[in-house]
Design a protein that fits this description.
Blueprint: H1 8-14, E1 52-53, H2 96-110, E2 135-140, E3 144-149, E4 155-160, E5 175-181, E6 184-190, E7 212-220, H3 222-232, E8 252-260, E9 269-277, H4 292-296
Parallel strand pairs: 4-5
Antiparallel strand pairs: 1-2, 1-9, 2-3, 3-4, 5-6, 6-7, 7-8, 8-9
């Protein structure tokens, strides 16, 4: 079956997505329940009032230390070209076989086509790949946090103050447990299933079932959040379809995540995602589905330019 690719720029520009609520969650280490389970309700940060927006496609690099794979393809301004995803296979975090996979997928992008990924194949998105979503909302409950993502209404549930089971059955989003450490929500995820189109990032970086991801969410003062987001947008330019609320001067939200996988990476590495309050106030319908007439025709894509959605000559009623 041929692979089909969406025109990313058109999709993100035309597919206005609105944020939906997600339930609050926190993760505990796999060794056992978090000691912070006894944190008072007053000390728990409130992440859930509204939709958070990160209007850029890729991960932000950490201020120091090993960071994620970045794009070798650049725009005339020197920014990452998100219409041509060519991962830097020379990044020292990659073991040789992983670097070769990233290189081959980049060559497909350079050819003018696209390699299949969870987004263009409309499949569940693994952690941390799912962090590319432009908008999220977190709904916090004492025993569970749910994070909603704008793409295809995906969501993750995190059990609070619980250990991972002794034997984790791999699943699309993995097994996530959480806890609060002071003003920080920590989520620990293991058991992320490996499949035909699963990958760490938009460059097709692979992973194994040894993948271990730790997320840390905390609120940032307005100026710090604005500065961090603007710094990230020097690498990944903002997408206009997912605007920040220009009138909101309150706190932002920052996710710092650590990725470990001895089967793919030479060292653990970190990335960040910085969110600010989204302009939109409700979730719009955002369903991932083929639309060959609008987005898949042309030399860039695998589908036939003359493909058409099946239609009937007359209605059934």
């Amino acid at each position: 079956m041929n692979v089909q690719r969406r025109d990313f720029l058109l999709v993100v520009t035309l597919a206005g997505a609105a944020a939906t609520p997600a339930w609050g969650q926190a993760a505990a280490p796999s060794a056992g329940p978090a000691s912070s389970a006894t944190s008072s309700a007053a000390s728990v940060p409130d992440f859930s009032p509204f939709i958070w927006a990160h209007p850029s496609l890729g991960f932000e690099s950490p201020v120091s230390g090993p960071g994620p794979v970045v794009n070798k393809s650049r725009t005339p301004k020197g920014e990452s070209n998100f219409n041509q995803l060519v991962g830097d296979y020379n990044n020292p975090i990659l073991k040789p076989h992983a670097a070769e996979i990233v290189k081959k997928r980049g060559e497909i992008s350079l050819s003018g086509l696209a390699f299949p990924d969870p987004d263009n194949q409309c499949t569940y998105q693994p952690v941390p790949y799912i962090f590319w979503n432009f908008e999220i909302q977190m709904l916090q409950q004492p025993d569970k946090i749910t994070i909603l993502y704008n793409h295809d209404h995906e969501f993750r549930e995190v059990r609070m103050n619980q250990p991972h089971p002794a034997h984790v059955t791999p699943s699309a989003h993995g097994d996530s447990v959480g806890h609060y450490q002071g003003d920080t929500l920590v989520i620990d995820t293991v058991g992320i299933k490996v499949g035909p189109y699963t990958m760490i990032d938009r460059f097709g970086t692979p992973y194994t079932e040894a993948l271990h991801v730790v997320e840390r969410y905390r609120l940032l003062d307005y100026e710090a959040a604005k500065e961090a987001q603007e710094r990230g947008q020097k690498e990944w330019p903002p997408v206009p379809a997912y605007p920040i609320d220009p009138d909101y001067k309150g706190k932002g939200l920052q996710l710092e995540f650590t990725v470990e996988d001895d089967g793919v990476f030479t060292v653990p590495w970190k990335g960040t995602i910085t969110y600010r309050r989204a302009l939109r106030k409700i979730w719009d319908e955002r369903i991932c589905a083929e639309n060959v007439q609008e987005y898949y025709a042309g030399h860039q894509y695998y589908s036939d330019k003359d493909a058409r959605v099946p239609t009937a000559d007359k209605p059934d009623f």
